[in-house]
Amino acid sequence: MALAAAGRVLLQAGSRLGRREVVDGARRFANKRVEVEADEAAGIAVMKLKNPPVNSLSLEFLTEFLISLEKLENNKNFRGVILTSERPGVFSAGLDLMEMYGRNPAHYAEYWRAVQELWLRLYLSNMILVCAINGTSPAGGCLMALTCDHRIMADNPKYTIGLNESQLGIVAPFWFKDNFVNTVGYRTAEHALQLGLLFPPAEALKLGIVDEVVPEDQVHSKAQSVMAQWMAIPDHSRQLTKNMMRKAMADNLIKQREADIQNFVSFISRDSIQKSLHTYLEKLKQKKG
Ligand SMILES: CCCCC/C=C\C/C=C\CC/C=C/CC(=O)SCCNC(=O)CCNC(=O)[C@H](O)C(C)(C)COP(=O)(O)OP(=O)(O)OC[C@H]1O[C@@H](n2cnc3c(N)ncnc32)[C@H](O)[C@@H]1OP(=O)(O)O
């Protein structure tokens, strides 16, 4: 119920933004920041993140992504989604720092609700989600991948993945942490979260952050073959199993969603946290020059 209501709000937000869908032979639909190649006969869609330069999860991106995902969820012909980046090299730079820096409390609250919504929708999706991680994927980018049923990463040592929040002077919220713990185990998570570690593909595979590492040019074909394997399982048994494994963790956020928003707003509004974000943003800029 809560999810449906939030979804309606996002749909309204989408039309406020005035997005027009481009339908191309009923097989491809795109808004500005998400491209969907939808093969209805096969029941599979490829969702490509397309928010240059680094696929940061801005409020506009989140809104467009959720609308596209909902379209697929509402069409019973779609059973599987492959999530990937339209720009190889960066899967996603995570949450958009500019949504969390120098804004007002109402904006922080709106943003955080959308971030929660993204996680809940992906984590509880009835569809099979396969993540084709074709680039670097810190923090919120890693979280997106963690919601998927299977993760394939490109074998490029330049790419890293992990929850690096503590390096920014911020804290991974409890549901990021829970999702990570359930993936890699408590000790690995405790260590990696405190240090804000980002792992290259081989290490990420060893720790179980990703399920497979394949040559960069095979990420997409591997994702298709993994999807075929998952699609051979009857939907009802797979979905019931997925729900059994995930419901408790999602419910834990759903029941304290408003408190989590308030926590985020008061945390991110602190002067000390804003200073940390400022320093981090400056570091990103200096890296260039
Ligand atoms: C006990 C109390 C607890 C209470 C807790 C309550 C709540 C929790 C509070 C907060 C939690 C918030 C959670 C946040 C999770 C996140 O996702 S934070 C984001 C983390 N992301 C990163 O650290 C990635 C930063 N980016 C990079 O490392 C690099 O950009 C890259 C991804 C490796 C790509 O490198 P590349 O060289 O290709 O590009 P540039 O670095 O030159 O970047 C281009 C351009 O993009 C800007 N940019 C990069 N990342 C972001 C971003 N995440 N958001 C916004 N903008 C970004 C960069 O600054 C450049 O901009 P330009 O100089 O204007 O061109």
Automatic annotation (TrEMBL):
It is found in: Mitochondrion matrix. One of its GO terms (cellular component) is mitochondrial matrix. Keywords: Acetylation, Fatty acid metabolism, Isomerase, Lipid metabolism, Mitochondrion, Transit peptide. One of its GO terms (biological process) is fatty acid beta-oxidation. Its EC number is 5.3.3.8. Transmembrane segments: none annotated. Its main location: mitochondrion. The keyword Acetylation applies. It is an enzyme of class 5 (isomerase). One of its GO terms (molecular function) is delta(3)-delta(2)-enoyl-CoA isomerase activity. Pathway: Lipid metabolism; fatty acid beta-oxidation. InterPro entries: ClpP/crotonase-like_dom_sf, Enoyl-CoA_hydra/iso. It catalyses: (3Z)-decenoyl-CoA = (2E)-decenoyl-CoA; (2E)-tetradecenoyl-CoA = (3Z)-tetradecenoyl-CoA; (3Z)-octenoyl-CoA = (2E)-octenoyl-CoA; a (3E)-enoyl-CoA = a 4-saturated (2E)-enoyl-CoA. Belongs to the enoyl-CoA hydratase/isomerase family. Homotrimer. Key enzyme of fatty acid beta-oxidation. Able to isomerize both 3-cis (3Z) and 3-trans (3E) double bonds into the 2-trans (2E) form in a range of enoyl-CoA species, with a preference for (3Z)-enoyl-CoAs over (3E)-enoyl-CoAs. The catalytic efficiency of this enzyme is not affected by the fatty acyl chain length. This is Enoyl-CoA delta isomerase 1, mitochondrial. It comes from Nannospalax galili (Northern Israeli blind subterranean mole rat).
